[in-house]
Design brief:
Helices cover 23% and strands 32% of the residues. By secondary structure, the chain is of the alpha+beta class. Strands 1-2-3-4-5-6-8-7 form an eight-stranded mixed sheet. The protein is built from four helices and eight strands. The longest helix has 15 residues. This is N-acetyltransferase. InterPro entries: Acyl_CoA_acyltransferase (IPR016181), GNAT_dom (IPR000182).
């Protein structure tokens, strides 16, 4: 059975719940970043529409919610890039640059491995304040483009 908690130092990943949903929904990004990611509230809605495939988690530093990541695990998806992927990821502006995003991606990758996936994908819009540099730094490599011009990148597990 996949685990629900991952730890690294003071960081931990917990399942999205009534106890942390408000904090997750109010994460504030750096100016310019909001155009590259949908609000957490959209992810929360998607998680409840697709509960069998969605994996929504918050990142806590001590007791403070500092990030949110949602994976999608659907081995039967007709779209290869949606089978094991990062669907959403936000790190609070005040917490960026402290390894929180790397921690969240590593935890999601471990969850994917535990479910039998051999790669993890992510899609992002290119742009100066976008997440491309981050995803490349944690090991993702561009493998294609969506019909909307977003980059599709993959991380071999």
């Amino acid at each position: 059975m996949p685990t629900n908690l991952y730890f690294m130092g003071d960081l931990r990943l917990e399942e999205l719940s009534a106890n942390n949903i408000v904090a997750a929904n109010t994460l504030t990004l750096k100016p310019g970043q909001e155009q590259f990611v949908a609000p957490v509230s959209h992810s929360i809605a998607e998680a409840y529409v697709n509960p069998s495939t969605a994996w929504p988690r918050v990142v806590l530093d001590g007791d403070e919610v500092v990030g949110f990541i949602m994976g999608n695990f659907d081995p039967d998806s007709p779209h290869d890039e949606f089978r094991g992927c990062i669907w959403r990821m936000n790190v609070a502006a005040t917490a960026q640059g402290r390894g929180i995003g790397r921690f969240a991606v590593t935890a999601l990758a471990e969850e994917a491995r535990s479910r039998g996936f051999d790669r993890l994908t992510v899609m992002f819009e290119p742009g100066e304040d976008g997440p491309e540099a981050f995803f490349l730094a944690v090991g993702f490599e561009p493998i294609g483009e969506t019909q909307f011009g977003e980059t599709i990148a993959a991380l071999t597990l």
